[in-house]
Amino acid sequence: MLTATFLHCQGVGEVTERDLWGSGIRSWSDFLERSEQSLPPRARSQLVREHVAESAKRLAARDGAWFARMLRPAHHWRVYPELGRRIAYLDIETTGGYGPGDLTVVGLYDGLRVRQFVKGDNLDEFPEALAGVELIVTFFGTGFDLPFLRRAFRMEFPQPHVDLCFALKRLGYRGGLKSVERQFGIRRSNETEGLTGMDAVRLWAEYQRGNEAALHTLLSYNAEDITSLETLWLAAYPRLVEHCGAPS
Q: Per the structure, how many domains does the chain have?
């Protein structure tokens, strides 16, 4: 989808982008091969042409941070699959507080392996685990997970970030993660069925009082959060492409 995207070019909005697609321009290379006069009027500036050429260079360099800056957050999903070699499905758990010390678990899933970083064990290893990640996928990470992690680790996230809470809302899906999972037919394990974020807070408190089984359940809950994000993302992506009217 990225190489069919023109919204990040100065002066190009959704109407002009659809005009480009409608005129048979399905990629940056199509655009660069066209003469100026054969382009839709709003896409004829030299600045747009330069920006398209720069986009091709940035993609060749796998400079996802550049596209994250150029695209509005609502359009970060468009970098996939070109910048999707390494995806991090991410979710955190906390004590219920909002301070840096209230972070208890960070879960990452790359489509193959679940990695979890736990307070008092290996939590400080989390930032290094994001090295090389090209795309972050969360559910309401814009409002919760990423701000919390910025405070806890004093780190930034230059990668494109897909927040499925808002991406799915554009497709007509409402509710929290568990509600959306049910709408997609995703079922939780017997161990975690019915658990909520408040239960995650409770389980951590029980673990702090010496209940090792509570930590096991908490980690299972977190793991199911992040693995279900992959299912939701892979289901949502083609629908987002269709929704925006991009060429097939």
A: 2
